[in-house]
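Task card 7
Instruction: Convert sequence to structure tokens.
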Amino acid sequence: MKSRDNSPAPDRKLRVLIATVTAGAGHLQAAAALQEAWTVLRPGDVVEKQDVLEFTPKLFRKPTSS
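Output:
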């Protein structure tokens, strides 16, 4: 059985979302590293980081934010 290559065509511009939370520096550092690596490998793509806690009620944000 032959495997299929599911990687995107190099000329196809992708939009990438990196979902993270501001519940500690580790999450933010990991998201930044992913964004940097993706940008180096595929500079034409659009990469965004988004804090998913921004979409939750304030009640949930307070105990987790530093």
